[in-house]
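Task: complex structure prediction.
Instruction: return structure tokens for all chains below.
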Amino acid sequence: MAAKAAAVSGLSVLLLEKRPEVGTPIRCAEAVPSYRLESFFSPRPSWIASPINGGMVETADGTRIVKEFPHVGYVLERKIFDRDLFAFAGESGAHLATRTRATGLVLAGKDISAVKVETERGERKEIGAEVVIAADGVESTTARFAGLEAKCELSQIHSCAQVLVNNIELPFKDYVHFYMGVEIVPGGYAWAFPKGEGRANLGLGITPSLADNGRPATAYLDAFLDRYFPEAKDNIVEFVVGAVPAAAGLKKMYQNNLVIVGDAAHLSDAFSGAGIINALISGDLAGKAAAKFLDGGKKEKIWKEEYYNPLQEQVLRTLNWYKKIKNVINHLNDDELNTTANIINQLMAHSNQKGGVDFLYILRTALLSHPKLLLKSRHILG
Ligand SMILES: Cc1cc2nc3c(=O)[nH]c(=O)nc-3n(C[C@H](O)[C@H](O)[C@H](O)COP(=O)(O)OP(=O)(O)OC[C@H]3O[C@@H](n4cnc5c(N)ncnc54)[C@H](O)[C@@H]3O)c2cc1C
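Output:
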């Protein structure tokens, strides 16, 4: 997105990708809200593995919150979506370099003057750059090369494991399914997202600091599959592990001629782990801001006004809110999670909102409406 936006704005752009093909291996459950994706693109049918027409949340005692939301989202086929995005950048004028890894930065004073790269064949080069956009994901090294504090604390990371399985029947065919419970998935949730044709992404993300004796996400995934989808273990097509930054944004997202976007800037949301749309938004803003940056003017002011402030408005405010919700949920035991689910069911039964429901509003109301839950959540939710 950043490369595309910068190229459309008239800049000469080089997009580096260390892998032979962008989008693989995929470390994502691939769900996006439809209206957010459609604010950027008319989705191609090949991007959509399954529509999402509703959701289900199940807590440890089997309490289910089930809600139909027609056309609320998509489960993407990210291998195709990411590759098309990469191609769109090229079609907009960016030069594309796969199998080319950024290995360092050349600094001239505080500014970056070039990016050091290494190709898969072992060739090393320095490529001059007037602006660098770091879009290198959760394992980003670019910000660190520039001397920025970009490490994610263990308490601020979701450790995830996921399998793509076939021959699977979900409780609701085109709904996203979430499973919560301290034993099942400490400090996170498990998911079952439909991928069409009897396939699904089954996975979970835990907060490692809350895990039992350092038990890894893969062990929790095994137990989750045994409990909810025992037939899945014989039908695994793909297995992935990955991390989601849950810090609600880096403290500093730009410096001199460097700007950081997407997961590299820790823009996934702490509650759901979703980061695709925030990567699109931040990439788009950064690409456009880069063009203004090179037009001249006060550099810090341009990043602030053209990148950080709109990001604050469109992404960071909500991320902070999700982070608070996650902090509350992390402190609830299974009984309290079950109670919350029951209150939400009552609230939804009495809600006369047609179509969509503001789920976060309902969750907040649920947490603040029960004396025991209120005690745990009021200082966090205010
Ligand atoms: C298990 C799991 C499930 C998830 N599920 C969802 C979900 O359902 N919905 C959702 O919205 N989000 C989800 N996320 C989060 C989502 O995947 C990320 O937020 C999103 O991919 C971030 O996009 P990005 O472009 O910032 O980073 P990435 O998608 O990680 O892309 C970074 C790119 O940079 C390349 N790269 C890295 N270093 C270098 C280098 N040195 N030189 C050159 N290239 C480099 C990588 O190869 C990669 O192609 C999930 C994450 C995980 C781990």
